[in-house]
Amino acid sequence: MNDQANSVEQRFETAAPAQLSSWNRHDTTWMLGLFGTAIGAGTLFLPINAGLGGFWPLVILALLAFPMTFFAHRGLTRFVLSGREGADITEVVEQHFGIKAGALITLLYFFAIFPILLIYSVGLTNTVASFLEHQLHITPPPRALLSFVLILGLLAVVRCGEQVIVKAMSLMVYPFIVALLFLAVYLIPHWNGGILSTASQVPAPSALLHTLWLAIPVMVFSFNHSPIISAFAVDQKRRYGVHADERSSQILSRAHLLMVVMVLFFVFSCVLTLSPEQLAEAKAQNLSILSYLANHFSNPTIAFAAPLIAFVAISKSFLGHYIGASEGLKGLIVKSGKRPGAKALDRIVAAFMLVVCWIVATLNPSILGMIETIGGPVIAAILFLMPMYAIRKVPAMARYRGQASNVFVTAVGLVAISALIYSLAA
Protein backbone atom coordinates (compact mmCIF):
# COMPACT_ATOMS: atom_id res chain seq x y z
CA MET A 1 0.00 0.00 0.00
CA ASN A 2 2.88 2.37 0.82
CA ASP A 3 4.51 1.61 -2.57
CA GLN A 4 1.27 2.43 -4.31
CA ALA A 5 0.97 5.69 -2.35
CA ASN A 6 4.57 6.59 -3.20
CA SER A 7 3.99 5.98 -6.91
CA VAL A 8 0.90 8.19 -6.81
CA GLU A 9 2.95 10.79 -4.97
CA GLN A 10 5.74 10.63 -7.55
CA ARG A 11 3.30 11.06 -10.45
CA PHE A 12 1.75 13.99 -8.62
CA GLU A 13 5.15 15.57 -7.98
CA THR A 14 6.06 15.52 -11.66
CA ALA A 15 2.88 17.41 -12.45
CA ALA A 16 3.39 19.92 -9.67
CA PRO A 17 4.65 23.46 -10.37
CA ALA A 18 8.45 23.88 -10.30
CA GLN A 19 8.31 26.96 -8.07
CA LEU A 20 5.99 28.09 -5.32
CA SER A 21 3.75 30.95 -6.39
CA SER A 22 3.57 34.19 -4.43
CA TRP A 23 1.08 34.70 -1.60
CA ASN A 24 -2.44 35.15 -2.98
CA ARG A 25 -6.06 35.71 -1.99
CA HIS A 26 -6.67 31.96 -1.67
CA ASP A 27 -3.95 31.78 1.01
CA THR A 28 -5.39 34.77 2.87
CA THR A 29 -8.85 33.19 2.81
CA TRP A 30 -7.51 29.99 4.35
CA MET A 31 -5.48 31.92 6.92
CA LEU A 32 -8.62 33.72 8.08
CA GLY A 33 -10.63 30.48 7.89
CA LEU A 34 -8.19 28.78 10.25
CA PHE A 35 -8.35 31.79 12.55
CA GLY A 36 -12.15 31.68 12.40
CA THR A 37 -12.35 28.03 13.41
CA ALA A 38 -9.93 28.40 16.32
CA ILE A 39 -11.02 31.72 17.74
CA GLY A 40 -14.59 31.26 18.83
CA ALA A 41 -16.65 30.87 21.96
CA GLY A 42 -13.71 29.41 23.90
CA THR A 43 -11.84 32.69 23.54
CA LEU A 44 -14.54 34.44 25.53
CA PHE A 45 -13.78 32.21 28.55
CA LEU A 46 -10.00 32.18 28.16
CA PRO A 47 -9.31 35.38 30.17
CA ILE A 48 -11.14 33.85 33.15
CA ASN A 49 -9.46 30.46 33.00
CA ALA A 50 -5.98 31.75 32.15
CA GLY A 51 -6.09 34.72 34.53
CA LEU A 52 -7.11 32.74 37.60
CA GLY A 53 -3.68 31.10 37.80
CA GLY A 54 -1.92 34.38 38.57
CA PHE A 55 0.60 36.60 36.77
CA TRP A 56 3.58 34.28 36.23
CA PRO A 57 1.64 31.25 34.92
CA LEU A 58 -0.16 33.58 32.50
CA VAL A 59 3.14 35.01 31.22
CA ILE A 60 4.56 31.50 30.70
CA LEU A 61 1.39 30.39 28.89
CA ALA A 62 1.60 33.48 26.67
CA LEU A 63 5.17 32.56 25.69
CA LEU A 64 4.16 28.95 24.98
CA ALA A 65 0.99 29.80 23.03
CA PHE A 66 2.52 30.11 19.55
CA PRO A 67 4.84 27.07 19.58
CA MET A 68 2.16 24.90 21.26
CA THR A 69 -0.45 25.62 18.62
CA PHE A 70 1.71 26.04 15.51
CA PHE A 71 3.87 22.91 15.83
CA ALA A 72 0.87 20.72 16.72
CA HIS A 73 -1.31 21.83 13.82
CA ARG A 74 1.64 21.74 11.42
CA GLY A 75 2.24 18.12 12.44
CA LEU A 76 -1.38 17.18 11.79
CA THR A 77 -1.29 18.99 8.43
CA ARG A 78 1.87 17.12 7.43
CA PHE A 79 0.22 13.85 8.41
CA VAL A 80 -2.71 14.48 6.05
CA LEU A 81 -0.34 15.67 3.31
CA SER A 82 1.58 12.38 3.58
CA GLY A 83 -1.38 10.45 2.15
CA ARG A 84 -2.72 10.01 -1.34
CA GLU A 85 -3.90 13.03 -3.29
CA GLY A 86 -7.42 13.96 -2.17
CA ALA A 87 -7.34 11.67 0.91
CA ASP A 88 -8.79 13.17 4.10
CA ILE A 89 -7.52 12.39 7.60
CA THR A 90 -9.62 9.24 8.04
CA GLU A 91 -8.39 7.82 4.72
CA VAL A 92 -4.76 8.69 5.53
CA VAL A 93 -5.00 6.84 8.87
CA GLU A 94 -6.34 3.77 7.05
CA GLN A 95 -3.60 4.07 4.41
CA HIS A 96 -0.78 4.21 6.98
CA PHE A 97 -2.10 2.10 9.87
CA GLY A 98 -4.61 -0.30 8.31
CA ILE A 99 -8.38 -0.67 8.01
CA LYS A 100 -9.08 -1.39 11.70
CA ALA A 101 -7.03 1.56 12.94
CA GLY A 102 -8.67 3.76 10.30
CA ALA A 103 -12.14 2.77 11.50
CA LEU A 104 -11.20 3.39 15.15
CA ILE A 105 -9.65 6.81 14.50
CA THR A 106 -12.63 7.79 12.33
CA LEU A 107 -14.99 6.86 15.17
CA LEU A 108 -12.94 8.78 17.76
CA TYR A 109 -12.50 11.74 15.41
CA PHE A 110 -16.25 12.03 14.94
CA PHE A 111 -17.16 11.69 18.62
CA ALA A 112 -14.49 14.20 19.61
CA ILE A 113 -15.80 16.92 17.27
CA PHE A 114 -19.53 16.27 17.05
CA PRO A 115 -20.32 17.04 20.73
CA ILE A 116 -18.61 20.42 20.30
CA LEU A 117 -20.92 21.09 17.35
CA LEU A 118 -23.89 20.32 19.63
CA ILE A 119 -22.54 22.72 22.25
CA TYR A 120 -22.30 25.49 19.67
CA SER A 121 -25.91 24.78 18.65
CA VAL A 122 -27.03 25.28 22.26
CA GLY A 123 -24.82 28.34 22.75
CA LEU A 124 -26.05 29.99 19.56
CA THR A 125 -29.70 29.51 20.54
CA ASN A 126 -29.10 30.84 24.06
CA THR A 127 -27.18 33.87 22.78
CA VAL A 128 -29.85 34.91 20.27
CA ALA A 129 -32.71 34.29 22.73
CA SER A 130 -30.98 36.38 25.39
CA PHE A 131 -30.22 39.16 22.88
CA LEU A 132 -33.86 39.34 21.74
CA GLU A 133 -35.15 39.39 25.31
CA HIS A 134 -32.68 41.64 27.12
CA GLN A 135 -31.26 43.97 24.46
CA LEU A 136 -34.10 44.25 21.91
CA HIS A 137 -36.87 43.67 24.53
CA ILE A 138 -38.62 41.27 22.17
CA THR A 139 -40.19 38.05 23.39
CA PRO A 140 -38.18 35.32 21.66
CA PRO A 141 -40.07 32.73 19.60
CA PRO A 142 -40.46 29.20 20.98
CA ARG A 143 -37.06 27.63 21.52
CA ALA A 144 -37.77 24.79 19.09
CA LEU A 145 -38.55 27.26 16.28
CA LEU A 146 -35.63 29.58 17.05
CA SER A 147 -33.05 26.79 17.18
CA PHE A 148 -34.40 25.25 13.97
CA VAL A 149 -34.17 28.56 12.04
CA LEU A 150 -30.65 29.31 13.31
CA ILE A 151 -29.22 25.86 12.57
CA LEU A 152 -30.99 25.70 9.21
CA GLY A 153 -29.46 29.08 8.34
CA LEU A 154 -25.94 27.85 9.10
CA LEU A 155 -26.53 24.60 7.20
CA ALA A 156 -27.66 26.67 4.21
CA VAL A 157 -24.14 28.13 4.16
CA VAL A 158 -22.74 24.61 4.48
CA ARG A 159 -24.74 23.41 1.44
CA CYS A 160 -22.92 25.97 -0.71
CA GLY A 161 -19.72 23.97 -0.41
CA GLU A 162 -16.44 23.93 1.48
CA GLN A 163 -14.95 26.94 -0.30
CA VAL A 164 -18.03 29.03 0.51
CA ILE A 165 -17.79 27.95 4.18
CA VAL A 166 -14.16 29.02 4.38
CA LYS A 167 -14.91 32.29 2.59
CA ALA A 168 -17.88 33.01 4.88
CA MET A 169 -15.74 32.30 7.93
CA SER A 170 -12.95 34.54 6.63
CA LEU A 171 -15.46 37.37 6.11
CA MET A 172 -16.87 36.91 9.61
CA VAL A 173 -13.36 37.15 11.03
CA TYR A 174 -13.06 40.84 10.17
CA PRO A 175 -15.87 42.12 12.43
CA PHE A 176 -14.74 39.71 15.13
CA ILE A 177 -11.16 41.06 15.06
CA VAL A 178 -12.47 44.62 15.12
CA ALA A 179 -14.76 43.81 18.04
CA LEU A 180 -11.99 42.14 20.06
CA LEU A 181 -9.69 45.09 19.38
CA PHE A 182 -12.44 47.54 20.31
CA LEU A 183 -13.09 45.81 23.63
CA ALA A 184 -9.40 45.42 24.45
CA VAL A 185 -8.72 49.12 23.70
CA TYR A 186 -11.91 50.23 25.47
CA LEU A 187 -10.70 48.57 28.65
CA ILE A 188 -7.30 50.31 28.67
CA PRO A 189 -8.51 53.36 30.68
CA HIS A 190 -9.96 50.91 33.22
CA TRP A 191 -6.70 49.04 33.79
CA ASN A 192 -6.01 49.00 37.51
CA GLY A 193 -3.23 46.46 37.69
CA GLY A 194 -5.60 43.55 38.17
CA ILE A 195 -3.46 40.45 37.95
CA LEU A 196 -0.26 42.49 38.45
CA SER A 197 -1.04 42.40 42.16
CA THR A 198 0.12 38.77 42.08
CA ALA A 199 3.37 39.52 40.20
CA SER A 200 5.36 39.97 43.40
CA GLN A 201 4.12 36.60 44.67
CA VAL A 202 6.41 34.13 42.91
CA PRO A 203 4.78 30.72 43.40
CA ALA A 204 6.74 27.72 44.59
CA PRO A 205 8.02 25.56 41.70
CA SER A 206 5.61 22.73 42.57
CA ALA A 207 2.63 25.10 42.71
CA LEU A 208 3.68 26.79 39.45
CA LEU A 209 4.01 23.46 37.64
CA HIS A 210 0.64 22.30 38.96
CA THR A 211 -1.04 25.51 37.77
CA LEU A 212 0.57 25.26 34.34
CA TRP A 213 -0.32 21.57 34.11
CA LEU A 214 -4.02 22.31 34.55
CA ALA A 215 -3.96 25.50 32.45
CA ILE A 216 -2.22 24.12 29.33
CA PRO A 217 -5.35 22.27 28.06
CA VAL A 218 -7.30 25.54 28.31
CA MET A 219 -4.75 27.30 26.13
CA VAL A 220 -4.45 24.39 23.70
CA PHE A 221 -8.17 24.08 23.04
CA SER A 222 -8.77 27.82 22.93
CA PHE A 223 -6.59 27.85 19.80
CA ASN A 224 -7.66 24.44 18.46
CA HIS A 225 -8.73 24.27 14.81
CA SER A 226 -7.95 20.62 14.12
CA PRO A 227 -11.46 19.93 12.68
CA ILE A 228 -10.66 22.00 9.58
CA ILE A 229 -7.03 20.89 9.18
CA SER A 230 -7.89 17.85 7.06
CA ALA A 231 -9.85 19.90 4.51
CA PHE A 232 -7.10 22.55 4.61
CA ALA A 233 -4.33 20.02 3.86
CA VAL A 234 -6.30 18.34 1.06
CA ASP A 235 -6.89 21.71 -0.62
CA GLN A 236 -3.22 22.75 -0.29
CA LYS A 237 -2.02 19.48 -1.83
CA ARG A 238 -4.47 19.81 -4.69
CA ARG A 239 -3.35 23.38 -5.37
CA TYR A 240 0.39 23.35 -4.61
CA GLY A 241 1.52 19.73 -5.08
CA VAL A 242 5.05 19.13 -3.73
CA HIS A 243 5.08 22.68 -2.35
CA ALA A 244 1.99 22.05 -0.20
CA ASP A 245 4.02 21.51 2.99
CA GLU A 246 5.92 24.78 2.55
CA ARG A 247 2.85 26.87 1.71
CA SER A 248 0.63 25.29 4.36
CA SER A 249 3.33 26.01 6.98
CA GLN A 250 3.39 29.65 5.86
CA ILE A 251 -0.40 29.91 6.12
CA LEU A 252 -0.42 28.19 9.53
CA SER A 253 2.35 30.40 10.93
CA ARG A 254 0.58 33.62 9.88
CA ALA A 255 -2.77 32.35 11.14
CA HIS A 256 -1.30 31.38 14.52
CA LEU A 257 0.61 34.65 14.84
CA LEU A 258 -2.64 36.53 14.24
CA MET A 259 -4.45 34.32 16.77
CA VAL A 260 -1.83 34.68 19.49
CA VAL A 261 -1.36 38.45 19.17
CA MET A 262 -5.08 39.23 19.01
CA VAL A 263 -6.20 36.86 21.74
CA LEU A 264 -3.39 37.60 24.18
CA PHE A 265 -3.96 41.35 23.85
CA PHE A 266 -7.63 40.74 24.65
CA VAL A 267 -6.76 38.41 27.55
CA PHE A 268 -4.23 40.76 29.15
CA SER A 269 -6.56 43.73 28.74
CA CYS A 270 -9.28 41.83 30.60
CA VAL A 271 -7.09 40.54 33.41
CA LEU A 272 -5.51 43.98 33.91
CA THR A 273 -9.03 45.38 34.36
CA LEU A 274 -10.48 42.76 36.69
CA SER A 275 -9.06 41.49 39.96
CA PRO A 276 -8.43 37.77 40.58
CA GLU A 277 -11.47 37.81 42.88
CA GLN A 278 -13.65 39.17 40.08
CA LEU A 279 -12.35 36.55 37.67
CA ALA A 280 -13.23 33.89 40.23
CA GLU A 281 -16.71 35.40 40.57
CA ALA A 282 -17.19 35.28 36.79
CA LYS A 283 -16.20 31.61 36.78
CA ALA A 284 -18.57 30.85 39.67
CA GLN A 285 -21.42 32.53 37.77
CA ASN A 286 -20.54 30.50 34.64
CA LEU A 287 -20.40 33.70 32.55
CA SER A 288 -18.23 34.55 29.57
CA ILE A 289 -15.89 37.48 30.06
CA LEU A 290 -18.11 39.63 27.83
CA SER A 291 -21.21 39.02 29.91
CA TYR A 292 -19.32 39.71 33.12
CA LEU A 293 -17.83 42.94 31.74
CA ALA A 294 -21.28 44.09 30.56
CA ASN A 295 -22.66 43.57 34.07
CA HIS A 296 -19.53 45.00 35.70
CA PHE A 297 -19.60 48.31 33.82
CA SER A 298 -23.36 48.55 33.20
CA ASN A 299 -22.37 49.95 29.82
CA PRO A 300 -25.08 49.81 27.13
CA THR A 301 -22.47 49.63 24.33
CA ILE A 302 -20.85 46.51 25.75
CA ALA A 303 -24.22 45.07 26.73
CA PHE A 304 -25.36 45.42 23.11
CA ALA A 305 -22.09 44.42 21.45
CA ALA A 306 -21.33 41.37 23.63
CA PRO A 307 -24.07 39.06 22.30
CA LEU A 308 -23.36 40.14 18.72
CA ILE A 309 -19.69 39.25 19.15
CA ALA A 310 -20.66 35.95 20.74
CA PHE A 311 -23.03 35.23 17.82
CA VAL A 312 -20.25 35.78 15.27
CA ALA A 313 -17.77 33.76 17.34
CA ILE A 314 -20.08 30.77 17.75
CA SER A 315 -21.26 30.85 14.12
CA LYS A 316 -17.66 30.83 12.85
CA SER A 317 -16.71 27.93 15.06
CA PHE A 318 -19.89 26.01 14.16
CA LEU A 319 -19.06 26.19 10.45
CA GLY A 320 -15.45 25.12 10.99
CA HIS A 321 -16.37 22.22 13.25
CA TYR A 322 -19.12 21.12 10.87
CA ILE A 323 -16.46 20.39 8.22
CA GLY A 324 -14.66 18.04 10.61
CA ALA A 325 -17.82 16.42 12.01
CA SER A 326 -19.32 15.80 8.56
CA GLU A 327 -16.00 14.38 7.35
CA GLY A 328 -15.97 11.94 10.27
CA LEU A 329 -19.60 10.92 9.77
CA LYS A 330 -19.08 10.33 6.05
CA GLY A 331 -16.08 8.17 6.91
CA LEU A 332 -18.17 6.11 9.35
CA ILE A 333 -20.93 5.59 6.76
CA VAL A 334 -18.48 4.51 4.05
CA LYS A 335 -16.57 2.18 6.42
CA SER A 336 -19.86 0.54 7.46
CA GLY A 337 -20.04 -0.92 3.96
CA LYS A 338 -22.69 1.42 2.59
CA ARG A 339 -21.49 3.55 -0.31
CA PRO A 340 -24.17 6.05 -1.37
CA GLY A 341 -23.39 8.58 -4.08
CA ALA A 342 -21.63 11.83 -3.18
CA LYS A 343 -24.80 13.94 -3.34
CA ALA A 344 -26.86 11.39 -1.42
CA LEU A 345 -24.13 11.16 1.23
CA ASP A 346 -24.08 14.94 1.63
CA ARG A 347 -27.87 15.00 2.06
CA ILE A 348 -27.83 12.16 4.62
CA VAL A 349 -25.12 13.88 6.68
CA ALA A 350 -26.80 17.30 6.51
CA ALA A 351 -30.17 15.84 7.54
CA PHE A 352 -28.61 13.98 10.47
CA MET A 353 -26.74 17.09 11.64
CA LEU A 354 -29.84 19.26 11.38
CA VAL A 355 -32.08 16.89 13.34
CA VAL A 356 -29.61 16.09 16.14
CA CYS A 357 -28.36 19.68 16.55
CA TRP A 358 -31.96 20.95 16.57
CA ILE A 359 -33.11 18.41 19.19
CA VAL A 360 -30.16 19.11 21.49
CA ALA A 361 -30.43 22.89 21.09
CA THR A 362 -34.16 22.67 21.92
CA LEU A 363 -33.62 20.47 25.00
CA ASN A 364 -30.73 22.70 26.22
CA PRO A 365 -29.07 20.03 28.41
CA SER A 366 -26.45 21.14 30.93
CA ILE A 367 -24.47 17.92 30.48
CA LEU A 368 -22.88 19.19 27.25
CA GLY A 369 -20.01 20.78 29.14
CA MET A 370 -19.02 17.34 30.40
CA ILE A 371 -19.23 15.89 26.90
CA GLU A 372 -16.85 18.59 25.62
CA THR A 373 -14.36 17.75 28.36
CA ILE A 374 -14.58 14.03 27.57
CA GLY A 375 -13.89 14.81 23.91
CA GLY A 376 -10.81 16.82 24.94
CA PRO A 377 -8.39 13.94 25.47
CA VAL A 378 -9.35 12.42 22.11
CA ILE A 379 -8.71 15.72 20.29
CA ALA A 380 -5.35 16.03 22.10
CA ALA A 381 -4.40 12.50 21.06
CA ILE A 382 -5.31 13.13 17.41
CA LEU A 383 -3.76 16.61 17.27
CA PHE A 384 -0.56 16.02 19.24
CA LEU A 385 0.30 12.34 19.54
CA MET A 386 -0.92 10.64 16.35
CA PRO A 387 1.18 12.82 13.95
CA MET A 388 4.28 12.39 16.13
CA TYR A 389 3.77 8.61 16.19
CA ALA A 390 3.37 8.66 12.41
CA ILE A 391 6.66 10.55 12.02
CA ARG A 392 8.40 7.71 13.87
CA LYS A 393 6.64 4.85 12.03
CA VAL A 394 5.50 6.00 8.56
CA PRO A 395 8.15 6.06 5.77
CA ALA A 396 6.38 8.94 4.01
CA MET A 397 7.03 11.15 7.06
CA ALA A 398 10.59 10.01 7.77
CA ARG A 399 12.07 13.35 6.65
CA TYR A 400 10.49 15.06 9.68
CA ARG A 401 12.30 12.85 12.21
CA GLY A 402 14.87 14.24 14.62
CA GLN A 403 13.31 17.69 15.04
CA ALA A 404 13.20 19.22 18.52
CA SER A 405 9.64 20.36 17.87
CA ASN A 406 8.54 16.71 17.79
CA VAL A 407 9.63 16.21 21.40
CA PHE A 408 7.94 19.47 22.41
CA VAL A 409 4.62 18.54 20.75
CA THR A 410 4.65 15.05 22.29
CA ALA A 411 5.33 16.49 25.75
CA VAL A 412 2.54 19.07 25.47
CA GLY A 413 0.14 16.40 24.23
CA LEU A 414 0.88 14.13 27.18
CA VAL A 415 0.53 17.05 29.60
CA ALA A 416 -2.81 18.10 28.08
CA ILE A 417 -4.25 14.57 28.13
CA SER A 418 -3.08 13.83 31.69
CA ALA A 419 -4.45 17.16 32.97
CA LEU A 420 -7.83 16.59 31.32
CA ILE A 421 -8.10 13.09 32.74
CA TYR A 422 -7.09 14.42 36.16
CA SER A 423 -9.78 17.13 35.96
CA LEU A 424 -12.41 14.52 35.11
CA ALA A 425 -11.35 12.26 37.98
CA ALA A 426 -11.01 15.05 40.55
UniProtKB/TrEMBL annotation:
Protein location: Cell inner membrane
KW Membrane (keyword) present: yes
GO molecular-function terms, A-Z: amino acid transmembrane transporter activity; symporter activity
UniProt keywords, alphabetically: Amino-acid transport, Cell inner membrane, Cell membrane, Membrane, Symport, Transmembrane, Transmembrane helix, Transport
Membrane topology: Multi-pass membrane protein
Catalytically driven reaction(s): L-serine(in) + H(+)(in) = L-serine(out) + H(+)(out)
TM regions (residue ranges): 29-48, 54-76, 97-123, 143-161, 173-191, 211-234, 255-274, 302-323, 344-361, 367-386, 407-425
GO cellular component, one term: plasma membrane
Keyword Cell wall biogenesis/degradation (UniProt): no
Source species, domain of life: Bacteria
Pfam families the record matches: Trp_Tyr_perm (PF03222)
Family matches, as NCBIfam families: stp
Protein name (Swiss-Prot/TrEMBL): HAAAP family serine/threonine permease
Taxonomic lineage from the root: Bacteria, Pseudomonadati, Pseudomonadota, Gammaproteobacteria, Pseudomonadales
